[in-house]
Design goal:
With 251 residues, the chain is of the alpha/beta class. It has one domain: 2-enoyl-CoA Hydratase, Chain A, domain 1, CATH 3.90.226. 51% of the residues lie in helices and 16% in strands. It has 11 helices and 9 strands. The strands form 2 sheets. It has a 6-stranded mixed sheet, sandwiched between helices. The protein has a 3-stranded parallel sheet with strand order 4-6-8. Helix 4 packs across helix 5. The chain is globular, with a radius of gyration of 17 Å. The two termini are 22 Å apart.
Length: 251
């Protein structure tokens, strides 16, 4: 199957789904399409609430595309690639509609960022999380502010420093990354659509006002996340990172 981002609106619920054959990784085109779809949904009057999901049943999102990371040859290219993550996170935080994250599997790197930027994330018990960036010589600079805001500085540091250790869904729920966890994908879907249906019949004005309150103090993220993208875009050029990425790609 070819990678895609698609959306479907029904009864005020706008479901945005992404897919990539490499464990739902995030190349630049997927990031660009996600940011556009989220922005559009936020301005679309028929949309009352957004569900963000991915295809498949094992991995919600495996983070940055290693193929694209290994192809970066300049700081300008690095900035452009990591700005894709910045644009998605900023689109999610500025969107006036609530975003419900449907987390059906493991989250790595940027996938943790997407879960954190969702206003309410519902996950399976198999949705382990890991910020693996340090293991390949970079760091969770762009998604870090969203993750830290959601789970706090201490938990964010635990994820960022011990970059090879998986934390299970119960840990993520206790830290606040996930609002709910369920045994099966079917149970997750039931919970997601129950909440989405309730929100679709709630006051759009009240939800927009709540969203502003929830994300207060983040107006500077338009600039902050781009500055963070510059850091990642520079580090990805190092010999350490190039070698680490190639090692991961051959596993």
């Amino acid at each position: 199957m070819e990678p895609y981002v698609k959306s479907h609106i029904e009864h005020g619920i706008n479901t945005i789904e992404f897919f990539h054959p490499q464990s739902n990784s995030l190349p630049g085109k997927i990031l660009e399409a996600l940011a556009k779809e989220i922005h559009y949904a936020g301005t679309h009057e028929e949309t009352k609430v957004i569900i963000l999901k991915s295809s498949g049943d094992k991995t919600f999102c495996s983070g940055a595309s290693f193929d694209e990371l290994s192809a970066i040859t300049s700081e300008e290219e690095g900035l452009k690639f990591f700005s894709g993550f910045a644009n998605v996170i900023n689109a999610m935080r500025k969107c006036p509609k609530f975003i419900v994250g449907r987390i059906q599997g493991k989250c790595v790197g940027g996938g943790v960022g997407l879960a954190a930027a969702a206003d309410y994330a519902i996950a399976t018990n198999s949705a382990d999380v890991r910020l693996s960036e340090l293991a390949v010589g970079i760091g969770p600079f762009v998604v870090g502010p969203a993750v830290e805001k959601k789970i706090g500085t201490s938990a964010f540091m635990q994820l960022a420093v011990d970059a090879t250790l998986w934390r299970n869904a119960d840990w993520a729920k206790r830290k606040g990354l996930f609002a709910e966890t369920h045994e099966t994908i079917e149970a997750v879907d039931e919970a997601v659509y129950r909440l989405a249906n309730t929100l679709a019949h709630s006051s759009p004005q009240a939800m927009a006002a709540m969203k502003k309150v929830f994300w207060s103090g983040t107006a500077h993220w338009d600039e902050l996340l781009i500055e963070r993208a510059k850091i990642s875009g520079s580090l990805v050029l190092s010999g350490f990172t190039k070698a680490a990425i190639e090692k991961f790609k051959t596993k």
